[in-house]
Amino acid sequence: MITIKDHSNQFAARAYPKKINETNPEANTTFLEAYLLARIGEKEKALSKFKGPIIYLALGMKANAIEALEKSQPKYRTLKNSPLFDEVRTEPRFQVVLEQARVIYEDKLKRCGN
User: Fold this and answer.
1) CB of 61 within 8 A of CB of 69?
2) Which terminus, N or C, of the chain has the lesser number of Cβ atoms within 10 Å?
3) Could you say which DSSP state residue 52 is in?
């Protein structure tokens, strides 16, 4: 688990979503809040805001992240290229999810004529 230990960064992590809402009251910052809380090690608070693979990975919960991916329809290119998934990229269960997403992606490309 990667955490933000510097106190000024912890303050910034808590203040950033509030600043966004001040600028744009219509913005939905729930995921961002959860992610930043996870990064500063606030597990319960993060999970009370949002549960999903990226939040689980930010908390070091690899098995939960892969399970969430297995239950969803993740985008192939995101799984393949995003550094957020580097921690689980070599996990066999992740490789299965990646392959399933690749098949769906390639099928969509064929149907669109690409």
Assistant:
1) no
2) C
3) S
Tens-place pLDDT, residues 23-68: 877 778 889 999 999 998 999 999 999 999 999 999 999 999 999 9
Q: Give per-residue burial for 12-31: e unless 16+ CB within 10 Å, then b.
A: ebeeebeeeeeeeeeeebee
- Tokens linked to 54: 């990226």
Q: What are the residues whose beta carbons fall under 8 Å from the beta carbon of 71, sequence distance 6 or more? A: none
How far is it, in rounded angstroms, from Cα 41 to Cα 97?
A: 27
| Type of residue at 97 | V
CA 18 from centroid of its chain's CA atoms: 20
Confidence class for position 17, pLDDT limits 50, 70, 90:
confident
Question: What does the block give as tokens for 69?
Answer: 């991916």
Token output for 2: 């990667």
Closest CA to 81 of 69, 89, 72: 89
